[in-house]
Specification:
The protein is of the alpha+beta class. The protein has one domain: Alpha-Beta Complex (Creatine Amidinohydrolase). About 25% of the residues lie in helices and about 25% in strands. The strands form six sheets. Strands 3, 4, 6 and 7 form a four-stranded antiparallel beta sheet that branches. It has a three-stranded antiparallel beta sheet with strand order 5-14-13, with no helix packed on it. A three-stranded antiparallel beta sheet has the order 8-12-15, with helices on one face. The site of 2-amino-4-trifluoromethylsulfanyl-butyric acid has 13 residues, from strand 6.
Length: about 280
């Protein structure tokens, strides 16, 4: 059985219970998530052929630091960088290094900034110079799957509705959904209950209630869904080495539906990629 508790009464660790946050926490998350979104906006002007992922890492650290925030990934379970940078067939958790980005690469930048104790977690794909149409299409499909999922986030729906929406759409587009990583509750903690699966069946899973805050972060592949983790213990790649894409938003459940805390204030949610709005998601 799923239990739901007011966020403050739970200990500061993942107990499996789902936290319900109050209005003050929603305001804290708005601020942290908007900082993360502005950092991702600023990266759109920087990412181009020749830039290294270590330079991106340094930029993210500095961007947060100057606003009084720290990256949640730094020293997290032995991870030693301020950001994850996942290029081409890297599914997630790519570690920044001194290799320059190359024309035609697609790269996911995943930023989590902690501001006043609240975690703002979001990621976007960036196109490095001109990229192949198949790569751009994968990014389009991936963001669209995220929008369709966000449309399911409202009281009374179930967590399975989120995964079902992503899976049905992505597979209809001849893409596959990574099963090995999921979205998560977020707020005072970086990774909290519930797990947010990106596949599944409508009507299954925990009920969605006002006050819940979680990420949705589908990883969608052009080939098969299977991944392996490299010897560094972090970098997850597609087994078939086909391209993978991911976008991530942090959302808070309201009485009416949800608020997307990590939307870009500059309209740069999908830099370099055009994704038309989903009519139902507009309201
Ligand atoms: N930011 C990632 C997420 O969306 C988690 C990265 S954990 C790390 O949940 F240790 F790999 F950085
Ligand atoms: Co996340
Ligand atoms: Co993230």
């Amino acid at each position: 059985m799923t239990s739901y508790l007011e966020a403050e009464v739970l200990p500061a660790r993942n107990t499996g219970a789902i936290r319900l946050y109050d209005a003050a926490a929603f305001e804290g998350m708005r601020r942290a998530c908007q900082l993360t979104a502005r950092c991702l906006d600023a990266l759109a002007a920087i990412i181009q052929p020749g830039v290294t992922t270590e330079e991106i890492d340094a930029f993210v650290f500095r961007y947060g630091y100057e606003a009084g925030a720290l990256p949640a990934t730094l020293n997290y379970r032995g991870y030693m960088k301020s950001v994850c940078t996942s290029i081409n067939h890297v599914v997630c958790h790519g570690i920044p290094n001194d290799k320059p980005l190359r024309e035609g690469d697609i790269v996911n930048i995943d930023v989590t900034l902690i501001l006043d104790g609240y975690h703002g977690d979001a990621s976007r794909m960036y196109l490095v110079g001109r990229v192949k149409r198949a790569a751009e299409r994968l990014c389009e499909v991936t963001y669209r799957s995220l929008l369709l999922a966000i449309d399911e986030v409202k009281p009374g729906n179930r967590m399975g509705d989120i995964g079902a929406a992503i899976q049905a759409y992505a597979e209809a587009e001849r893409c596959s959904v990574v099963r090995d990583f999921c979205g998560h509750g977020v707020g005072r903690l970086f990774h909290d209950a519930p797990n947010v699966l990106h596949y599944g069946r409508r009507g299954e899973g925990a009920e969605i209630r006002p006050g819940m805050i979680f990420t949705i972060e589908p990883m969608i592949n052009l080939g098969r869904p299977h991944v392996k983790v490299l010897a560094d213990g972090w970098t997850a790649v597609t087994r078939d080495r086909a391209l993978s894409a991911q976008y991530e938003h942090t959302v808070g459940v309201t009485e009416a539906g949800c608020e997307v805390f990590t939307l870009s204030p500059a309209g740069l949610d999908t830099p370099g990629v055009t994704v038309s709005k989903i009519p139902a998601a507009a309201g």
